[in-house]
Design a protein that fits this description.
28% strand, two-stranded antiparallel sheet, alpha+beta, twelve-stranded mixed beta sheet, 357 residues
Length: 357
């Protein structure tokens, strides 16, 4: 995987509750001592298709509509030459009903994964829709009652700015209330208020958190939230991860991954079962000595007590194919009904499409 500008590493752990309970293989993590922000994720509208009660039933009409909607999102970008390479950038003229120069990212749509963040004082809770096809973070306030609102008029801690990172948008600074570490940090962000005479003001309020790796997919002249957290030493590592626990819940981790928490639960469960089994047999269960880090990719779960373990170890890296812009992986094989139908297939990672059952 290749990241052209700021070296964020994305780790997608598609875990089911059953896999976690059965002690699935550990995944890459940052060091346990590094601070990590964990945001609870949810999929708006629930699971991908509400047809669980019939396991062999597929709603092809629903699937077709979703594919059309996804194709519209991809059509918001185009390939352009940048020096001696191709990169992806947002189309200037918009597409599929977007007005010229519209920011990418739909807000409050069903099927989007989102996290909640509190901004300002008193705190105003806003839903951040995750978007892996754009690199911007922005907050949008409309006159509609749809969505979640952050209104700068009601914040006592806002520092206004006359900078224009984008037409119809300003660049204020306000307090962000961060989960896990439970502190407030002033961060600047793109804040957009469409004109009351614009059709955009009839849409939903909310925010978009762009997670694309390429700066070329950035439309605003602003510093990303993740970079600001690094600069302010809130986090130590340029890493974020997405862990989708089931079809409608998950965790967004910034500064590391959620793997230590998952493995701690696994270890605690195994310890409790060992204690119960030992008590039933009249034996004395051995005490657990400390916590360890498990390497990914080993055939056995070998404990590694060195906290300076290389987090890149055990992963296979490949260059992104095609125009620079999106997160991409290489699937060595795809099987359907036991038959291999694709080999070495490049795939774009888009969290809007990920909905494990």
């Amino acid at each position: 995987m290749h990241t052209p500008s700021f070296p964020f590493l994305i780790i997608l752990a598609l875990l089911s509750i059953a896999n976690v309970a059965s002690g699935s293989q550990s995944i890459l993590r940052s060091l346990d001592v590094a601070p990590v922000l964990h945001f609870t994720l949810a999929r708006r509208g629930g699971k991908f298709a509400a047809t669980e009660w019939i396991k062999d039933y597929v709603n092809l009409t629903y699937l077709t509509q979703e594919l059309e909607r996804i194709e519209d999102r991809y059509n918001l970008t185009q390939r352009v030459a940048k020096g001696n390479r191709l990169v992806r950038k947002a189309k200037i003229d918009g597409t599929k009903g977007s007005h010229p120069g519209a920011l990418m990212g739909r807000i409050a749509d069903n099927g989007l994964w989102y996290a909640k963040v509190k901004i300002g004082e008193p705190p105003q809770e806003v839903e951040m829709d995750l978007n892996m096809l754009t690199a911007d973070f922005y907050v949008l306030l409309t006159t509609s009652r749809i969505g979640t609102k952050y209104d700068d008029l009601f914040s006592q801690t806002i520092i206004k700015s006359y900078d224009r990172p984008y037409p119809t948008c300003t660049l204020p600074t306000d307090s962000f209330h961060l989960p896990t570490i439970n502190i407030s940090v002033p961060l600047s962000f793109t804040y957009c208020r469409p004109s009351k005479f614009s059709l955009d003001t009839l849409g939903a309020s909310g925010s978009v958190l762009g997670l694309a790796p390429s700066e070329h997919l950035r439309q605003t002249k602003s510093t990303s939230i993740l970079k600001q957290l690094l600069q302010k030493q809130v986090i130590e590592r340029p890493i974020f991860s997405l862990m989708l626990i089931n079809g409608q819940e998950g965790v967004l981790s910034i500064g590391g991954t959620g793997a230590p928490a998952v493995e701690l639960v696994e270890q605690q469960t195994r310890d409790e079962l060992d204690h119960i089994g030992a008590a039933e047999r009249g034996e004395t269960a051995s005490n657990v000595v400390g916590e360890s880090i498990f390497k990914r990719g080993t055939t056995k779960r070998e404990p590694v007590f060195d906290t300076k373990a290389d987090w890149e170890e055990g992963w296979k890296w490949s260059q992104v194919q095609g125009a620079e812009g999106w997160w991409q992986i290489l699937m060595q094989g795809v099987w359907v009904g036991g038959s291999k139908v694709l080999q070495n297939q490049a795939a774009v990672i888009d969290v809007s499409l990920l909905s494990p059952a």
